[in-house]
């Protein structure tokens, strides 16, 4: 069974810093990996979906990379802002049932002004 | 704008009562999902539906029921058989057109049962 891990559980950085969030998965045979953002008391907002054939996906100040062989994805946030403060989660679909997803527990990011 | 609407945002019920959470989407997505989120735990799948009039149990279906009579709607009923119903419930949808269909979420319903 796929296991998805996000370490650290919480991260605090000063405004303007570039940062990297990590997502690890145990089974490297994945079809894609999706990054989400969750604000307190809200649902998840999809940020990026990176397919298994891709190495990187970019959206604005966000860049997601995928290294299947090492079972890792990173979400790079450039020039962080207080508005980036949220919990970031990653998820991968089940290999045999793509309606089932494995979620990490998230990294709670605090960007200090 | 297309999206997923969950209502109500907050719901309070007495123990022993059934309660129904609403989820409506106008994204024309085929698949819909219900997840439960508890502090310190990841998202857990309750039920999902790939097409109208069909749904499957997820990992924690006991004490819950769903229906899918319309493509746009996937209500979740939390029954009195659910031992620990207080949680944050999230509805999601996807196009279901292959393995690279991203998930989209609603804003959730926080249910408190006392």
**How many beta-strand runs of chain A?**
11
The helix fraction of chain B, in percent, is: under 10%
Reading the helices and strands of chain A in chain order gives: EEEEEEEEEEE
Output mean pLDDT of chain A: 95
Radius of gyration of chain B: 13 Å
Instruction: List the uncertain runs of chain B.
Output: none
Q: Write the element-wise H/E pattern of chain B from the N-terminal end onward.
A: EEEEEEEEEEE
Largest protein-protein interface: A-B, 24 and 29 residues
Q: Span between N and C termini of chain A?
A: 41 Å
Secondary structure tally, helices of chain B: 0
Strand content of chain A: over 45%
What does the main sheet of chain A amount to?
Answer: 6 strands, mixed
- What is the CA-CA span between the terminal residues of chain B? 36 Å
Features:
heterodimer, A: 113 residues, mainly beta, 6-stranded mixed beta sheet, 5-stranded antiparallel beta sheet, B: 114 residues, 4-stranded antiparallel beta sheet, 0% helix, globular
Task: Describe this structure as you would to a colleague.
The complex is a heterodimer of chains A (113) and B (114). By secondary structure, chain A is mainly β. In chain A, 0% of the residues lie in helices and 55% in strands. In chain A, the strands form two sheets. In chain A, strands 2, 4, 5, 9, 10 and 11 form a six-stranded mixed β-sheet that branches. A five-stranded antiparallel β-sheet of chain A has the order 1-3-8-7-6, with no helix packed on it. In chain A, a hairpin with a 2-residue loop joins β6 and β7. The radius of gyration of chain A is 14 Å and the shape is globular. The mean pLDDT of chain A is 95. Chain B is mostly beta strands and 114 residues long. Chain B has no helices and eleven strands. In chain B, strands 2, 4, 5, 6, 9, 10 and 11 form a seven-stranded mixed β-sheet that branches. In chain B, strands 1-3-8-7 form a four-stranded antiparallel β-sheet, with no helix packed on it. Chain B starts with a strand and ends with a strand. The model of chain B has no long low-confidence stretch (mean pLDDT 93). The chains are: A mainly beta (113), B mainly beta (114). The A-B interface holds A 4, 31-32, 34, 36, 41-46, 49, 51, 89, 91, 93, 98-101, 103-106 and B 4, 6, 31, 33, 40-43, 45, 48, 50, 56, 58, 90, 92, 94, 96, 98-108, 110.
């Amino acid at each position: 069974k796929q296991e998805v891990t996000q370490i650290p559980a919480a991260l605090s950085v000063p405004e303007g810093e570039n940062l990297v969030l990590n997502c690890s998965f145990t089974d490297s045979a994945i079809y894609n990996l999706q990054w989400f953002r969750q604000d307190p008391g809200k649902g998840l907002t999809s940020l990026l979906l990176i397919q298994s054939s891709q190495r990187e996906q970019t959206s604005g100040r966000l860049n997601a990379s995928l290294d299947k062989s090492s079972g890792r994805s990173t979400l790079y946030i450039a020039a962080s802002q207080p508005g980036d403060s949220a919990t970031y989660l990653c998820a991968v679909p089940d290999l045999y049932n793509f309606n089932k997803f494995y979620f990490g527990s998230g990294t709670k990011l605090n960007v200090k002004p | 704008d297309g999206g997923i609407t969950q209502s109500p945002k907050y719901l309070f019920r007495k123990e022993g009562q059934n309660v129904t959470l609403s989820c409506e989407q106008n994204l024309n997505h085929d698949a819909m999902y219900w997840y439960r989120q508890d502090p310190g735990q990841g998202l857990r799948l309750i039920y999902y539906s790939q097409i109208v009039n069909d749904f499957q149990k997820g990992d924690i279906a006991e004490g819950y029921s769903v229906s899918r009579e319309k493509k746009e709607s996937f209500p979740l009923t939390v029954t009195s058989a659910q031992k620990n119903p207080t949680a944050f419930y999230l509805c999601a949808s996807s196009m279901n057109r292959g393995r690279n269909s991203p998930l989209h979420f609603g804003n959730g319903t926080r249910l408190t049962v006392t």
